[in-house]
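Hey, resending since the last one bounced:
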Amino acid sequence: MDTAAQGEDQMEDVVSLRVLRRILARHGLAPRKALGQNFLIDANLRNKILQSAAPGPEDLVVEVGAGPGTLTPGLLAGGGVVLAVEADRRLAAILTERLSPFAERAVVLVADVLRLDLVEAAAAHGWATRPALAVGNLPYYITSPCLFHLLETPLRWRRMVFLVQREVAARITAPPGTKDYGLLSVMLQYRTVPTVVAVLPPSVFWPPPKVHSALLRLDLPGRYPSLSPREEEIFRGLVKAAFGQRRKTLANSCRAWTEHLGLTEEFTSTCREADVDPNRRGEELTVEEFMRLAKALAAAIPTPTPDAFGTERKNHRAIHQSHQR
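The C-alpha cells again:
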C-alpha cells in the first residue's frame, strides 16, 4: 500500500461503515465469522462506551478485540496508555499503521487474550502498576472465559466496559430468585458491581449479529469485602455445586462436593451456623449468604489437603463451562 493510502487510513474514522468497508477492501479483507467479527458502526454508541470507560491520564487501558481501531483513538484521548489486543493478524497490521502517531502510548499485541499474560505485557512497557481499565467489543463465544481471565489477572483493575450478548448481561446482573440468576451472576457480583448501561439492536454492528447486545460496565472493587484465598476457593466450589442441580436443595446439590471435602456430616450444622437454611435452593441465596457460608465452611475444615477443592484452574474451567446455566 502506498504512503498516501497509509495516511488516509490513519486519519479516517472507521466507525463509518463506508470508511470501514473501504479500508478493509484496500487490504483485501472482510469480516471473519469464525472470529466473531461484528464491527461497531454507530458513533453515538462509541461515544457512550468511551464515556462509560472514562479513561484518564494515569490509566492503562487493555482494549480487547481492538479490530481496526474504532475505539482506540478515543481511549488514547484520555491521556493514558493502551494495550490493544487483536487476534486477527491482518486487522492488527491495519491498527498498527493507524496508531503510528501514538507509538509511545499505544502497543498492538497480536494475541489470543485468553492466552496472554497481561501483567508481563504491561510490565514490558513499564505500565503494570497503573490503574487499569478493560474495554472492548467481545466476541460472544469467549465472553465468560474472557471476563474470568481478566478478573484473575492481577492488574489494578478499576473498571471494565464491554459489549456483550444481551442474555449474558442479564445473567450477570440478575438478582436472586430469578431464572437468570446463576453461577455467573454470583461470581461476577462478588468481584464487581455490574451495570447494564444500554441494550443495543443488531443494526449498530456490521455485519449485524443475530442477537441483541448490551453495553455492560463492571466497576471494581465490588461492594463485598474480599475473601481470603482459601475462603474464595471454597466459595467457588460451593457456588458451582449449588447451581449444578438447580431444582435441588442446597444440602442435596452440594452433597457430592461436601463428601469430597469430608464435610457431609457437618454441612447442615455449618449452614445453620452461617444462618443459611440448607433446605433452600442455590438460586435463592444472595451473594452475601454464599460468602458467609464459604467462610463458615473454611473454618470447619482444619487442614485442607492438596486436592481438597481441585486445582484453581480446574474450578475456573468448570465455571466457564457452566456459565449459561
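The beta strands are 39-40, 60-64, 81-86, 106-110, 131-137, 156-165, 193-200, 205-206, 213-219.

Sorry for the duplicate.
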